[in-house]
Amino acid sequence: MVQTIVTQIEDLETKIRDCDSRLQVIDDTLRLKELQEAERQSLHEEEKQIKKKLTAYESNLKELRKENRKTMLMSVCLVGMMYLLYSWLWGT
């Protein structure tokens, strides 16, 4: 199935929300619970991995939004040209 740019943007936004949510849980766990050093290290490693993913997702989202703006601009230009052609042909 072919995904549209809008669908891809929505998917990335969902992934970003999931990452933010997980980072919040990790942060709360690190601050509020007594943990053994191994558990603390494990959570810090997971936090690093999630932040890496989050950076990649945000970069991809930025590119998709840029592409979406280009597509929208092209659509507006085409509609405008069609309107001008219509008014020129049938307006006289």
Give a verbal description of the structure:
The longest helix is centred in the last third of the chain and has 54 residues, at 37-90. The chain is mostly helical. The mean pLDDT is 94. Helices cover 89% and strands 0% of the residues. Helix 1 packs antiparallel against helix 2. It is found in: Membrane. Its main location: membrane. It comes from Magallana gigas. Residues 33-74 form a coiled coil.
Short recap of the structure:
It is found in: Membrane. The chain has 92 residues and is mostly helical.
Distance between the termini: 46 Å
The ordered H/E elements are: HH
Kindly state the number of beta strands: 0
What does the radius of gyration come to?
A: 23 Å
Structural class: mainly alpha
The mean pLDDT is: 94
Q: Low-confidence parts lasting 5 or more residues at pLDDT below 50? A: none
Strand content: under 5%
Proportion of residues in helical segments: over 70%
Helix tally equals 2
| Tally of domains | 1
Q: What general form does the structure show? A: rod-shaped
**Largest sheet, strands/sense/barrel:** none
InterPro entries: CC167
Keywords: Coiled coil, Membrane, Transmembrane, Transmembrane helix
Main location: membrane
Organism: Magallana gigas (Pacific oyster)
